Amino acid sequence: MLSGIGQSVAAAGFFLAGYFVLNIVLRLIQPDTLGLDESEQAFFSQFLLLGYGPQPPFYNWLQYAVVSVAGLSLWTLVVPKNILLFLCYLFYGFAAREALKDKSLAAIAMLSLIILPQVGFLAQRELTHTVALLVATSLFLYGFFRTLRRPTLASYLLVGIAVGVGLIAKYNFAILPAAAFLAVLPDRQWRRHLFDWRMLVAIAVAILIVLPHALWLPDNIESASAATLERMTADHEAGSAILRIGQGLVSLFIAIIGFTALPIAVFAACFRRDFFRALRATSPLIRLIERMMAASLLSVVIVIIGGASHIHERWLDPFLLVLPITLFLKMQAAGFDMSAGIRRFLPIVPVAMVIIVSVLTLRIVGAGLLGSYPILNVPMAEFASRLGESRKPVLVIASNKYLAGNIRLQWPDVPAVLPDFPDPQTSSYARADGPVLIVWRGRTASDATIPPEFAARLQAAGIELPETQALTLPYLYGNPKHVFSLGYAWIDGPLSDGSAVR
């Protein structure tokens, strides 16, 4: 069976489809509490906007479309994400098939994505916008390699679509097509593709996809960039630029090691001495890919010099995703027999899958034994049930997207808002004619004290907070002594002119 899945991209695709169906089933039988990214999507799925803050809107638009058609449920959050992850692998297989001469080798490259921690594990565990970025990157690599090998209008369209989707999936994607452009320029053989009339079609398609968000961005640049810049920078005194740059370069080096160490170790273990000899092998396509990766990482260095002091591994996804294809290209160029190494590699794929699904499941059901509780263990369904015992709200005002999205999942027909989103003023709340539930979490899991910043946001929105209460429940799959608390307050509406009528 293992040898069969490595024979073609189609066979590997069917195998991976089964794996993602398994992931869907396992997530659906876990608690219906949402993770951070899932709850954000549940919250944002109420609104169709040109921009949503620090993340570009592609995944939000996709989620809004699905929820509009099928309603909000765990199904409509989990299934689209796993379809996108499957498409990431599939497009990567197509890209590998364009770059590699051996179609079975392309299937192995496609399967090798599972051993990239950022793709195989982290994307499955939590991420959403990064999942869209991975799909766009794989599609770009497919269109890019296909255009280099056999340029057609369709291949240019693929590039244009990938660039457009990538730019509204994650902002750091913008570096990848720029790096690819720079990498192609020195090569006479491929440089002519940059000045083909079909490139104008690709650019036009990309612009059309990006245009709605691009119109929103200039007036909202601060909200789009503030959170990202905060995560990428550290507090340093004014005269510590050298220290900050040094810290940034160290974090970049650590991120590169974190991204590449496992796949390189696996390839080395499977192909042994041949792998190390192959690292010196080269070809025109290998040199182009190396220039593209170098230009991408140099751009990150420029970002560090410009102010960033912390680079996360996830930020390197679009630049280093091509690594498995590159390693197989080198081994192919070296000309040695890879059959023994592939036989050693293939069993690693299902083993990695078993490890991933086991960890994703056991970290939830075994949380009590581990003494560490992921947010999926918070009993949000019971919280909603308890809070709604006496009355059901017509509006929920939450302190963060995690609570807003989770409560909305339990009460899909009840709008959930933040004090300053979707409206910075009180208009959303003044229309509420009935009981309004205000809910928050404190500084720690067992603390229900209202955070001062949330109280300030309520006050800024013109909402007078009545008497506060707390609800404490034990974690799911946990020790009864380990609890999670929510603070809440009821306003017996209607809200009028931003004031509470009790």
Give a summary of the structure in a few sentences.
The protein is mainly α. It has 24 helices and 5 strands. The protein folds into 2 domains: 2-337, no CATH class; 375-491.
Spatial order of the strands forming the largest sheet: 2-1-3-5-4
Q: What amount of the residues lies in strands?
A: 5-15%
The major pleated sheet works out as:
5 strands, mixed
Tell me the number of structural domains.
Answer: 2
Quaternary state, please? single chain
Gyration radius, rounded: 25 Å
**What characteristic shape results from the CA principal axes?**
globular
- The number of distinct β-strands equals 5
Distance between the first and last residues' Cα: 67 Å
Mean pLDDT: 90
- Give the helix proportion (percent range): 55-70%
N-to-C SSE string, H for helix and E for strand: HHHHHHHHHHHHHHHHHHHHHEHEHEHEE
Q: In DSSP terms, counting alpha (H) and pi (I) runs of 4 or more, how many helices?
A: 24
Query: Which secondary-structure class do the elements indicate?
Result: mainly alpha
| Uncertain residue ranges | 496-502
